[in-house]
Amino acid sequence: MKKYYYTAGALGIAVNFLLFMVKLYVGNAVFSLTIYCDAVNNLGDTFSCVIAMLGFYLAVKLGGRRGARTQSLAAFVIGIIIAITGLFFVYRGLDRLMYPAATSYSLKYVAVIVSTVFVKAALGGAMVFLNKKSPSPITKALALDSFLDCLITLFTLISVVLVTKVNFAFDAYFAFICGGAITVEAVRNIVKETKFLIND
């Protein structure tokens, strides 16, 4: 059981931090708000995986009911981190609407971002596999977040292309959409884990 938990946490930290670095570079290169926000989202996921590792360690050490509560608490904290990331997206969208800025893109950078979608999907699949081997609300939350991130990155790509073709702040509005989706899903998980912690 410990092996699967720690593998999930370590894999999540390594992949998400790598994606953060790649997207931060591309976001700065093309001056894209949505790619930059997507990078910050991956940084938030990295911290979530650190919390997951801590939760796994304490859950295994405590065991039983206290271990289950520890995992639920870790999933709760991960939900808060994701919700804050979503609200950050909304804030940056407002900022871009107030202070528009020109963006650009190239097929090279588009190909890089497309590859990150497949990487994140693979990570989500790995989390689902590990969760089947040893079920945990933490790995379930990380799997859901990974697949949600794939959709967010696809929205990011669409907005980057559109904003360079049309004189309209698509990136700002896509930041609103992505931020809203992230926040809503995170709040749902927070409520779910809160109910478990209260009723347990």
Explain the overall architecture:
This protein has helices at residues 2-30, 33-62, 64-98, 107-133, 137-165, 170-199. 90% of the residues lie in helices and 0% in strands. The chain is an all-alpha fold and 200 residues long. It has six helices and no strands. The chain starts with a helix and ends with a helix. The longest helix is centred in the middle third of the chain and has 35 residues, at 64-98. Helix 1 runs antiparallel to helix 4 (107-133), helix 3 runs parallel beside helix 5 (137-165) and helix 4 runs antiparallel to helix 5.
Strands, helices and their partners?
Layout: H1 2-30, H2 33-62, H3 64-98, H4 107-133, H5 137-165, H6 170-199
Helix pairs in contact: 1-2, 1-4, 2-3, 2-5, 3-5, 3-6, 4-5, 5-6
- The parts where pLDDT drops under 50 for at least 5 residues are none
User: Whole-number radius of gyration?
Assistant: 17 Å
Query: Which structural category fits the helices and strands?
Result: mainly alpha
Number of strands: 0
How much strand content do the residues show? under 5%
Mean pLDDT: 81
Q: How would you sum up the global shape?
A: elongated
Number of helices: 6
Keywords:
elongated, mainly alpha, 200 residues, 90% helix, single chain
Concise account of the structure shown:
The chain has 200 residues and is mostly helical.
